[in-house]
Each structure stands twice: as structure tokens, then as C-alpha cells.
Design brief:
Length: about 200
């Protein structure tokens, strides 16, 4: 593995770790929430939840604060294999995890649980080895809340997806946020010109 590939893998592991960290914060703040899945994505991470009461973007600062508090005690991930019965017992009240466990069993794959801090999740792995040391508290930011159907199927229940941005450094995060804001400004200027153009044309109809 060359340096670039190593950096890419580390960033992916960091983003995946932050998805776990997000879930840990959510479950502490909203204990009756059901967590589902949380992968790394191109600009950060997300995690889908079933909340008993809706949350909004206004709740993100509180959740982000709890994530940073939890990060202080996240020193390493440990993992262990579980039997199907053990896994189902652990997630007995979470139908989403039970569905995933059944799929893993059908595929004949190992069921692995990963734990960091006080949070345990059904997971295949791919995390920062020492989150507390490897992840800067300033290198991530919760971005927005959106709706998402479970497994992307509109026939399934609508869940709440919490998106987060994450980069290797604070500077890279800030640069990305600035670029996104500039892109939005350009879109608004273009839209404004288009609307003005159409309005002027209507006057000459």
C-alpha cells in the first residue's frame, strides 16, 4: 500500500469511527432511539436512526458537543464474534439490527461486534485504532438532518439520517465548508439572473 492509499484508508476509517461516535452520542441523549447503519461517505459520514420524537438541525450542536465529550474516552476498539442467538439477544428491541443479523447468517458470514468507550455496534470493522489520539475534535462537524427510507426502499419506514463532515485536519474541513458556501452563492446568483431574465421577458410578451 502506497502513502496515498494509506491516507485514504485512514480517512475512511476515521469517518467510519465518527459514525459510531455519532450513534453513541445519539443513544445517550435520546435513549429510546433505534440505531440502524452508519457508513463513511466521500465528505464524511452519516447514520440512520428511528427517533421516537423528531429532531432537527437545531439539535446538531448539542449532539456534536456530546460526540466531542465521548471522544475523550475512546482509546481503542475491541471486537468479538457473536453467535446468532447472542447477537439477536443483544439487539432484541431493534428490528433493523435483527434484519441485518439474519442477512449475515444467511450469507454464512461471521457476526462481529465492535466496542469503543461505552458504545457497542454490529459492524464489520475498519476504524481508527486510537480515536482519541487520531481524530482531532476540530476535524469534524455535523452537517444536516434528512429523511431516508430504511435500506433506500420507499416501502420501508422513513428514518432520520444525520450527516456529518469529516476531514484529516481542521484546515481541510474549513476549506471544504468554504467551497460549499461559495458554490451555493454562485447558484443563487445564477438563479437570480435567470429569474430576472424571465421576469423582463414576461414584460415584453
Amino acid at each position: 500500500m502506497n502513502k496515498t492509499e494509506d491516507q485514504t484508508e485512514k480517512l475512511g476509517n476515521m469517518r467510519h469511527t465518527l459514525a459510531h461516535l455519532l450513534a453513541s452520542a445519539i443513544l445517550e441523549l435520546y435513549p429510546d432511539t433505534k440505531n440502524t447503519i452508519g457508513p463513511a461517505i466521500d465528505d464524511g459520514f452519516y447514520y440512520d436512526f428511528e427517533f421516537s420524537s423528531p429532531i432537527s438541525d437545531k439539535d446538531l450542536p448539542k449532539i456534536e458537543k456530546k460526540m466531542r465529550e465521548n471522544l475523550k474516552s475512546w482509546k481503542e476498539f475491541t471486537h468479538e464474534e457473536k453467535t446468532a442467538d447472542e447477537a439477536k439477544e443483544y439487539f432484541a428491541n431493534n428490528p433493523y439490527k435483527l434484519e441485518l443479523i439474519n442477512e449475515i447468517v444467511e450469507k454464512g458470514e461471521k457476526i462481529t461486534f465492535y466496542t469503543c468507550g461505552q458504545f457497542t455496534d454490529l459492524c464489520r470493522g475498519g476504524h481508527s485504532e486510537n480515536p482519541k489520539e487520531e481524530i482531532s475534535p476540530d476535524s469534524f462537524k455535523l452537517d444536516r438532518v434528512a429523511g431516508a427510507y430504511w435500506r433506500g426502499d420507499e416501502k420501508n419506514k422513513m428514518l432520520t439520517r444525520v450527516y456529518g463532515l469529516a476531514f484529516a485536519t481542521k484546515e481541510e474541513l474549513e476549506k471544504y465548508i468554504w467551497q460549499q458556501e461559495e458554490a451555493r452563492k454562485r447558484d443563487h446568483r445564477i438563479l437570480g439572473k435567470q429569474l430576472k431574465y424571465y421576469k423582463n421577458n414576461e414584460l415584453h410578451l
